[in-house]
Every structure is written in C-alpha cells, then in structure tokens.
Amino acid sequence: MKQFLFIRRPSEGYTIPVSSFSHAEYTSDTTITLYFEGSKTGKNSTVAVVLTVTSGKATDVINSISSQVANSSATVFKYDDINDTFFTKNVTGITSITTSMEDVVTPIYPAITITDESSDTTCFPLFVTAATGDLSLKTGSNLAFNSSTGELTVDGVITAKTIHSLRCTFFDDMGTTKHYLPIGAPPNEQTSDGNSYSDWLCPCNIVVKSVIVKLPSVTSGSGNLTVSVEKTEINTTPGSTPTSVESETLAIADTDDNHVAYFNFDNAAVEVGANLQIGIQSDSDLSGSANWYTQVIMEMDWSTRYTGSSSVKDS
Questions:
Q1: Could you give all domains of the chain from N- to C-terminal order, each with its CATH number?
Q2: pLDDT one digit per residue (tens) for the chain, 315 residues
Q3: SS3 at position 303
Q4: HEC states along 28-66?
C-alpha cells in the first residue's frame, strides 16, 4: 500500500494511505494544503496537511503531487521536516497537520418509491414536530385525506391567509361623482363613506388584491375610471378622515360595452379593527343609469384576528 509519511517533529508523525488523498489546494504563494478523507471511531474525518513551499512555486508543487499520486512507483511519499527531506521538489517544510471529524449520519427513513394513488378514502398525512433534526414521522386522527375525492378533513381551526370576495353590485347613474362601493350592505352605494353601506370593519389584516367591474351594456362615453382603496383607522370616526391606501385608473372607451375592467393593486393593506372603504369615480360620464356588477377580491390573514378574553381594543 502506498502511503504518505509526514514527520513534523520527533513527537508528531503521520502515515496516511495515498488512496485517501482527496485534493490539494492553493493556500498562499508560500503554502499549499493537502486533504485526506477517511473515517475514525465511526465518524467521517478529514486530515489537512499544510506544506510550506518555495515562494511562487505553490502551483508547481500541486501539479507535482497530483502527478506523483497518480504515477509514482514509490511506496512511501516521505516529508520529513526534521531532516529537511521532502518527496516533492520545492516543498520546504510542514506548517501544520490537523484532523477534523463529523458524525456519520444514517438516514432514519430511506428513500422510497412514490406512486399516484386516488382510491383510498381514508388517509392520514404525515408530519413531524420540529422543522429540522432526526425526527419520527407522526399522524393525527383529526387530520385526514380522502385520495378518491381530494377532500381534506380537519377537525380544528385552520389559521391561514385565505382569499375572499365581496359582492358590491349597484344601480346608478354615476356621472362624475365619486361613489363608494356597497361593501357593507349592497346594493346601496353611497357618495360618501362612514356609513353601514360603504364601510366594512376588518376582522383581521386584509389586503385588497383586485376589483373587477362589469361595464354597462351601453357605454356612451369615454374617460378614466378610478377605483381607490381607503381606510379609517381604529380610534377614528368612520368617514371623518379616511386615508388613501392605493388607487388604480383605467381608460374606458365608448366601445367597451359589457367589458370587464380589472383593477389590480400592489399592496392595498388594511389592518384589523380599521374600516375599509372602496371608492369608484370617472372623470367623464360613461353611461346613464346602469347596473355596475362589481366584485372585490381580498386576502385575509386570520392569524392576526383578535383572540383571547373579551376586551375593548384601541389598536
């Protein structure tokens, strides 16, 4: 068996099989590091030997050692720092020899083949009790999946962000007057906010994602239609000092009869306990009296809802 022999000092010598040589690495202009991989007491180990080399010859030494490992017929590659005898030209000394070890980890659960299954009516999803680590797989009888129908049964409360829509259809000749969508109690749109028709109390943090509006059957004019998300903070009288959150404007043509205007918002966020209002206004008269079919799409974060004992909230 071919071996490296490193003698750094009288009390420090190592023999390492050439077969465990991993690679050589340029450390600096005057040093290189040899890496050897192996195992010790059930653990993976890496031995790093730092050799001092003639200035400017580090790359040459790496090439030489790599060639010697592959081609030399010698059985011992000796590097003796006591007697200044080195198997490879331009090596001048041994700076350090260090060993590091890591646990050998054997997977508790080996890889298994997964196939599509859509007939079992009662299945139990697997889970673990922490985000990382060597953990046991578990199931819960209160969490079941029907692979035949795709139905997931959860006995408890799901706390998550969910998507909801509010129907806000109304009938009116809007003209150029700003109206507020009847998000509280359709179909009674209003030209001012702060009432039970136009205001909606947020039960949790919400984000208005979009508003879609079915344009009238007879669009008699052209103009810019603006939908604006507004809010009245908690501790503030509804309708007194609404805050503009975000608005979007679309150009409407007189040929857009029965088209759908889609207003997409970047981050129209309103906090739990605040009142939400959504305004709609055109800068020109688009139609006479007409039905305005409107849907508000919002994301609701139920993890932010009020919980705990009954109390009066001011935030």
A1: 3-103 (no CATH), 161-304 (2.60.120)
A2: 799 999 998 888 889 999 999 999 999 999 999 999 877 666 778 899 999 999 999 999 999 999 999 999 999 999 999 999 999 999 999 999 998 876 544 444 556 677 888 888 989 988 888 888 777 888 998 999 999 999 999 988 888 899 999 999 999 999 999 999 998 877 777 877 777 788 899 999 999 999 999 999 877 889 999 999 999 999 998 878 889 999 999 999 999 999 999 999 999 999 999 999 999 999 999 999 999 999 999 999 999 999 999 999 988
A3: helix
A4: ECCEEEEEEEEEECCEEEEEEEEEEECCCCHHHHHHHHH
